């Protein structure tokens, strides 16, 4: 299979041109066609010699994604189910906020973390995505928005998979979309979320980036967190909090803690007080997420009244807390649900 064009940085393109005895500025032209003009084929790159266009087409695939399904919610959320070249499927979501449009991208096909409230982990991990496959999700979203004259303002790496278990590709992705010759999305407008892979939190802190970090917490103590998130058995909560303190000290950047509220499980007043104690003294924001209903799971949503009560308790302890606005509730909003439905359909087709 040919390499993905979106895998290459600006420097990589210049090096490729140099290797093929061509002026390096041809690499800059290719970047402009890929990211500013969002060409879908090398034939569109009309200021490149025809021989070069043919050579590029023989060597690279521009868009490795093929849209299987595109769903549009009443609130303007757009959810894509993309087929990859090996026929695996991944999801990407466009979300509209008051501050602009964000895109949520996937870094792995499936997930092995095993969080009990998440649809992404159903079926386990199939493989890591290449950097170009992650970049292609943002480009595809931007191509969709081009029809409406709108622009991707921010990117959240919160789709299926654990980004820090695909660390190198995730970092390459960040560099590519941040590149001024690429999509030119500022690092402060990029958020990477982790379920708590401690070694990579330390590594990420030392990268010298201005990218935002979000940590999926979902419980105020290690016993409950181990029940909800098996990864806590590998990377216990006390050690995770120590890594977060290192990150804060090293970067000076506030951490967002994601907390999915599950009815009767982790949403009681005592959980809120315990969470506030855990986070005391940290420069952080708690993002409260009323859990999405997943048919394969047996969890229920926290009543709206209790969501606000939980937020008030945190704030009474001096912990900043927001409630995530729901996006796309009418189009299988939970991460991994659209892919799960697709896999179920394929399985039924195969067995019928």
TrEMBL record:
Residues binding [4Fe-4S] cluster, per UniProt: 111, 115, 118
Enzyme class label: transferase
InterPro entries (UniProt xref): Aldolase_TIM, Methyltransferase_A, RlmN_N, RNA_MTrfase_RlmN, rRNA_lsu_MTrfase_RlmN/Cfr, rSAM, rSAM_sf
Catalytic reaction annotation: adenosine(37) in tRNA + 2 reduced [2Fe-2S]-[ferredoxin] + 2 S-adenosyl-L-methionine = 2-methyladenosine(37) in tRNA + 5'-deoxyadenosine + L-methionine + 2 oxidized [2Fe-2S]-[ferredoxin] + S-adenosyl-L-homocysteine; adenosine(2503) in 23S rRNA + 2 reduced [2Fe-2S]-[ferredoxin] + 2 S-adenosyl-L-methionine = 2-methyladenosine(2503) in 23S rRNA + 5'-deoxyadenosine + L-methionine + 2 oxidized [2Fe-2S]-[ferredoxin] + S-adenosyl-L-homocysteine
Record GO biological process: rRNA base methylation; tRNA methylation
Note: Reaction proceeds by a ping-pong mechanism involving intermediate methylation of a conserved cysteine residue.
Homology family: Belongs to the radical SAM superfamily. RlmN family.
PANTHER family the UniProt entry points to: 23S RRNA METHYLTRANSFERASE, RADICAL SAM CORE DOMAIN-CONTAINING PROTEIN
Annotated protein name in UniProt: Probable dual-specificity RNA methyltransferase RlmN
The organism's taxonomic lineage, starting at the top: Bacteria, Bacillati, Bacillota, Bacilli, Bacillales
